[in-house]
Specification:
The complex is a heterodimer of chains A (600) and B (160).
Chain A (H helix, E strand, L loop, with lengths): L1 H21 L13 H4 L4 H8 L7 E3 L12 E5 L2 E8 L2 E7 L5 E10 L4 E8 L2 E10 L4 E4 H4 L13 E2 L9 E5 L2 E2 L4 E2 L2 E5 L3 H5 L3 H6 L3 H8 L15 H9 L5 E3 L5 H6 L14 E3 L27 H6 L34 H4 L3 H5 L1 H5 L10 H5 L2 E5 L2 E4 L10 H4 L5 H5 L5 H12 L17 H8 L2 H12 L15 H7 L5 H17 L22 H17 L22 H8 L12
Helix pairs in contact in A: 18-19, 18-23, 19-21, 20-21
Chain B lengths: L9 H7 L1 H36 L3 H4 L2 H24 L10 H27 L12 H21 L4
Classes of the chains: A alpha+beta (600), B mainly alpha (160).
Chain lengths: 600, 160
């Protein structure tokens, strides 16, 4: 009895001590990091759902389990340089052009990226160097980064060879510390953990782990106490929640700029849950940075047009200041499909109608389109695919209402004509005004280029991002017509675009062409078989590309087009379904060739 | 106070060995309790087999629940058998009546609390820890330890 009472008294005393400790705030930035391997013991489910994400594999040591590229004596020839990819057991090597214009053999130390493109990092002296050749995971082929980023053909071979220690390290790992010695100009880079692991979002966990070895403490937390030793994003104020994602999904500069020295020597001062604006300022269209035209990363109305600016997109969304919307309203780091990480329950319109329930009850009244059709998909109009990143066009994260006049006011893609690819922006503006009972814009352009379907005008007259977005739109599944054969009118325009001076634009055009043909079952029907050889390679030398294109043109010219309908006067096609060269030439003459620097 | 009529011949034996009657009552208790408990925990075992047979995700896909329900079944069955075996030692001559009673009560308490703690801790649990019911398990373990200590001491004592 005495022993039992003593045990009870001891338990109560320990409980009181823990309760006091739980109420004492913790200076989390002072706490050490632990790594995800420590978290799994108490959070096996959370660990498992994180483990299958592309966040985990963002940066990995170059082990056989991490390297997905073909290193079995594969090669890639680009700009006359043949890079070779080999392995020796568990060691992986890339032989490619060095900055000294000699061929060098580099051993791979780390991989960066695991969903779309896997990049390779070697060690040169004290530095980790990202090589300019990479493996395209989705297409299972080697590429040159000039073709993955938005660079024209003439871009230097090593333009994207860059230091990992002062660049990639910040967003692709937990708690980056480049540890630059400014006197010797050397790095001794460290990270708390490679890849985006638990502590990137929850803050440093060493103290949390040590204190929670006490089971009584854990059970007090289960009974409702809050743990001051760890950050739970969902319990943070709204902006701090968004900033956890914005820390990487929102390109930024140190605040103030001079703080860059601290970033490079000590490391990134931000800890999950902090107010990010204390340390950095998000880049916007007006940000000035010597040597880089940052305005090119945004459409001229300020909408981000590259990925890794989703934070800026959300901050500039309509109603941002008055809503409860956070990244986690739609995304879940521990659930759903790792691609996009959308919560399963938030797919489709569900994500939007959780707040806009009234619209959800009668969506066709709001959209003017059939309720079950793609025209009633919220994302199609309010988050249209206008953002470029890694050979993909993504939905904009600046949530806006469709305004076709943006096409001529801001020289940017707009939602209506990304689906109605055969129509002009002026048509879209008038139609929108008619449907919603608003006055049409009073600044309709007199420029004859706007008499051309907006997709075609942008495809030939736009800058590189407009062209990529337009090429993507011409083939995207969400379209004004569900008849895939009728969409083949876009084929000759895509064939012309396959001559674009930017490899990335050629890539979109070629991929779109294949998708259109596949959907129309070109190889299966009376339409005829599309040419399979010679294969078109958007990174190949001009002569090889021309040979493949000639084969495609011959097929198109010989195709029986009686089943196709002319898409209308706004699409510059002649009676033979060949592009009207005069219109195309005048559009191309308007192209802006500003270089777009992707800060990755 | 007892109105129960003693069977012929037992009364004189009891008078001679009152501890013997108490031990017999304990043995009876452990026999009844042991078989009942064994039946209950074997039924749980059958439920677990059915969960395997019918591929019940709530059991098979939840490693922590699976582990704790298995522990409950194992400990429940084992401790039930221990109660049946304990009948043999319930009359340990080197134990006094009070000690015998304490050991018996501790064994019964442990047999109930420990597997029940595993069972409740497994049915409702947190991500990395069993549910609050698990606190019954260490209490049951202490009770069992107490019982074992009494019996251990008696085993090393010279017989009276």
């Amino acid at each position: 009895m005495i022993a039992a009472l003593a045990a009870l008294a001891a338990t109560v005393a320990i409980g009181a001590r823990i309760t006091g400790e739980l109420r004492t705030p913790v200076e989390l930035p002072q706490v050490a990091y632990a790594t995800s391997e420590q978290c799994v013991m108490c959070h096996p489910g959370r660990y498992e759902t994180w483990h299958r994400t592309f966040h985990r594999t963002m940066t990995q040591p170059a082990r056989a389990t991490a390297v997905v590229g073909d290193f079995e004596n594969a090669s890639l020839t680009y700009q006359g340089v043949t890079s070779r990819f080999t392995r020796d057991g568990e060691r992986f090597f890339v032989e490619t052009l060095s900055p000294a214009n000699t061929m060098e053999r580099y051993e791979i130390a780390m991989t960066v990226g695991s969903r779309r493109i896997q990049q390779y990092v070697t060690r040169v002296g004290d530095r980790h160097v990202r090589l300019p050749v990479a493996w395209n995971i989705e297409e299972r082929r080697w590429i040159h980064l000039n073709g993955g980023f938005l660079d024209p053909d003439a871009t230097a071979f090593n333009a994207h060879r860059t230091d990992w220690d002062s660049n990639c390290i910040f967003c692709h790992n937990v708690k980056a510390q480049p540890r630059l010695n400014r006197e010797t100009d050397t790095f001794d880079a460290r990270v708390a953990e490679l890849g985006i692991a638990c502590e990137a979002c929850h803050g440093p966990a060493d103290l949390h782990i040590r204190r929670n070895r006490d089971p009584l403490r854990r059970y007090l937390l289960y009974l409702g106490d809050r743990d001051p030793t760890i950050r739970s994003p969902r319990e943070l104020p709204r902006m701090q929640q968004i900033q956890i994602c914005g820390h990487c999904h929102g390109q930024r500069l140190p605040n103030p700029r001079e703080r860059i020295a601290e970033f490079m020597t000590v490391g990134d001062p931000y800890t999950a849950g902090d107010d990010l604006s204390r340390f950095t300022t998000p880049i916007d269209a007006h940000t000035e940075l010597a040597g880089t035209d940052l305005s090119q990363r945004f459409w001229s109305d300020g909408t981000p047009r590259l990925t890794a600016y989703e934070y800026q997109g959300l901050l500039t969304s309509e109603g941002h200041g008055s809503s409860d919307l956070t990244c986690m309203s739609c995304h879940d780091m521990h659930g759903g499909d790792p691609r996009g990480m959308i919560q399963p329950a938030m797919r489709g319109n569900a994500g939007c109608v959780q707040c806009h329930a009234e619209i959800g009850r009668n969506v066709s009244k709001h959209t003017g389109h059939e309720a079950a059709g793609s025209g009633s998909e919220c994302y199609a109009c309010h988050m249209p695919p206008t953002t470029y990143g890694l050979l993909t066009v993504h939905p904009s994260h600046r949530i806006t209402s469709p305004a076709p006049a943006r096409a001529w006011r801001n020289e940017m893609p707009e939602a209506c004509t990304l689906c109605h690819t055969d129509r002009t922006a002026i048509w879209a503006a008038r139609e929108t005004a008619r449907q919603f009972g608003t006055p049409p814009p009073d600044d309709e352009p007199s420029d004859r280029a706007f008499e051309t379907a907006e997709s075609i005008r942008s495809l030939f007259g736009g800058d590189v991002v407009q062209r990529a977005v337009a090429a993507n739109a011409l083939a995207q599944a969400r379209s004004y017509t569900s008849d895939p054969t009728q969409r083949l009118w876009a084929v000759p325009f895509l064939l012309l675009t396959m001559e674009d001076p930017y490899p990335a634009v050629r890539h979109f055009a070629h991929r779109g062409l294949l998708e259109l043909c596949a959907r129309a079952e070109v190889g299966e029907s009376a339409i005829g078989a599309a040419p399979k050889s010679p294969p078109f390679d958007y990174l190949a030398e001009p002569a090889a590309r021309t040979a493949a294109l000639q084969s495609w043109w011959s097929w198109w010219q010989g195709l029986d087009k009686r089943r196709l309908s002319h898409p209308g006067a706004a699409v510059p096609l002649d009676a033979e379904f060949m592009p009207r060269r005069d219109v195309i030439t005048s559009l191309i003459a308007r192209q802006s060739n500003h270089l777009v620097s992707i800060g990755e | 106070m007892s109105a129960r009529k003693e069977p012929r011949g037992e009364s004189s034996t009891k008078e001679q060995r009152p501890e013997g009657a108490a031990a017999e009552r304990l043995a009876l208790l452990h026999r009844r309790f042991g078989w009942t408990s064994l039946f209950a925990w074997m039924c749980l075992g059958l439920v677990l087999e059915l969960a395997h047979g019918f591929k019940l995700g709530g059991y098979l896909l939840d490693p922590l629940r699976r582990e704790f329900l298995t522990l409950a079944h194992f400990h429940g069955a084992l401790l039930s058998v221990l109660n049946l075996v304990y009948v043999r030692w319930a009359e340990a001559p080197s134990l006094g009546a009070t000690q015998r009673l304490h050991a018996s009560r501790a064994l019964v308490a442990g047999t109930v609390l420990m597997p029940l703690g595993f069972l409740l801790g497994g049915i409702q649990h947190y991500e990395g820890d069993p549910g609050l019911g698990i606190f019954l398990a260490p209490i049951g373990a202490l009770a069992l330890l107490y019982c074992v200590l009494i019996q251990l001491r008696a085993a090393w004592k010279p017989e009276r």
